[in-house]
Specification:
This protein is about 15% helix and about 40% strand. The protein is globular, with a radius of gyration of 18 Å. The protein has one domain (about 15-170): Beta Barrel (Lipocalin), CATH 2.40.128. Strand 4 and strand 5 form a beta hairpin. Strands 1, 2, 3, 4, 5, 6, 7, 8, 9, 10 and 11 form an eleven-stranded antiparallel beta sheet that branches. It is mainly beta. It starts with 5 loop residues before the first helix and ends in a 5-residue tail after the last strand. The chain is built from three helices and eleven strands.
């Protein structure tokens, strides 16, 4: 019988290895680094669409082995960036909101870690404790980033209390 040192046992018990699917998901996003894509709001429709009449665009800007940043522009508003980071706890999605002068908005850096069960092409991120304190109404939020079956679309989806609140689809087959 093989014996393990206390350091080895501690490492096995308390290390939080990032699931391979989360690494693969980040790698799939990195393939689009340096490119921009247009999007459309799929939900809500009509007069309930908060971005009606405004062009949607994402740009894959920062891309490395542990981080991908995706600025999300709505018309002339360039205040939003989705930040995905791999760390010892897993894959983290945060929303970085900035004023035009670059200073942080008072409502910024909300999101959470990917939940179990994601794939290389789909990850869901329930709201973390910071988000619940910052935006109490968003405590049940879940953000998802999902590649379409043909891998030519990236959907950004927001649900609250298990109900869809927003979905935008970005056409990855037509870089700008």
């Amino acid at each position: 019988m093989r014996t393990l040192s206390i350091v080895t046992v501690f490492s096995l018990l308390f290390s939080a290895a990032t699931p391979p699917t989360e690494k693969e998901f980040l790698s799939n996003l990195k393939k689009f680094c340096g490119q921009s894509f247009e999007g459309v709001v799929r939900f809500p429709e009509g007069d309930k669409n908060p971005f009606a009449g405004k062009a949607l665009k994402i740009y894959f800007s920062v891309c490395n082995d542990t981080e991908v940043q995706i600025p999300f522009h709505v018309g002339e508003d360039k205040s939003r960036t989705w930040v995905l980071k791999l760390d010892d706890q897993g894959l983290l999605l945060k929303h970085d909101h900035r004023h035009a002068d670059g200073t942080p908005d008072e409502i910024t850096w909300y999101g959470g870690y990917a939940k179990t069960g994601g794939t290389a092409f789909s990850q869901a991120f329930p709201a973390d404790e910071h988000t619940a304190k910052l935006i109490p109404a968003a405590s049940t939020n879940e953000w998802s980033l999902v590649f379409g079956p043909d891998k030519k679309t990236l959907s950004y989806i927001l649900s609250r209390d298990g109900n869809m609140r927003f979905q935008a689809d970005f056409d990855l087959s037509k870089p700008l």
